[in-house]
Give the backbone structure.
Amino acid sequence: MKDEERWVRERRKRNIALALMLAGVAVLFFLMSIVQWREHSGQ
Amino acid sequence: MSLSLTYPRVTTVGDFLALLKPRVMSLVIFTGLAGIVAAPGYLHPLTAFTALLCIAVAAGASGCLNMAYDSDIDGLMTRTATRPIPMGHIAREDALTFGWTLSIGAVATMGLFVNFMAAGLLAFTGFFYVVVYTLWLKRRTAQNIVIGGLSGALPPAIGWAAVTGDLSMAPLLLVAIIFMWTPPHFWALSLWRSDDYARAGVPMLPVVKGKPHTRLQILLYTLVLVPLGMAPAALGFSGALYLAAAAGIGLWFLWAAIGVVRERDDIKEPAARRLFGVSLVYLTALFAALIAEKLIGLPALSLPLAL
């Protein structure tokens, strides 16, 4: 049973890390789009 | 008779992080940052962060692909046997997918949000490390780390290009310094790891040409590196702080290289281990001085050679 718990926990940690990474990329792309838009519009 | 179910070891976040070679990545981030800080012109802080992130991720991806393509020989060497792929913690195919995804993602992001020059240099750096060094040179020639060292030397130029959109003499000088630093740094390591390399069939210089020849080559490269390290100050790209660091630690580097030539302990190689440490201090100090000068606003020297 312990093996199963450890396996599930490690998998969950990996999925959370992947989700956080993708969320980080999405936020970065959003913010960079604003920076680019402001630079190109001369603001 | 009982049926036992065993759960395979799931690949952890730590395994993926280990594939990115964090220690190599930190040096690349540092030299890339120096290129960004030293370059003339303005870059929005978030764009600078994005550029640095792309450099870091692309460097990590190259390290990951290197581990995937070299997993057969990594298992044969003490230094690399505990890496995630030879340990069976991660499948080679997963590492390849991870590495190529990050690599392409980093270059595309650099091109999209920073500029195409920086993205092109980043792509070239990854190509050179993975294809030219890992797949082509590493197992074929004793000059593997000399030529392959170009990929590790390029981050300051990528950082510079992220700000200016082009290249000039100053970033190329920084590239030249890291390029000349790489052989003595890695040959020092290979002196006390030569048995490892011989077992894996990697033609490192001590394996192919012997230790006395390697020691001499280390000294020759160091003799070129030390004055080259001072060149940014002499040519008017940096100031007194940088010159003091380059001269002071450069002489320490040279002294350590002379120690390697005079070394007689072929087993433990204490002088080579010392040189390896000094080389890390040298490069870190040089780029730290460069960054500090720019952040403090210290003026560049106006010596007769200044361009």
In short: The helical segments of chain A are 2-40. DSSP finds one helix and no strands in chain A. Chain A has a mean pLDDT of 89.
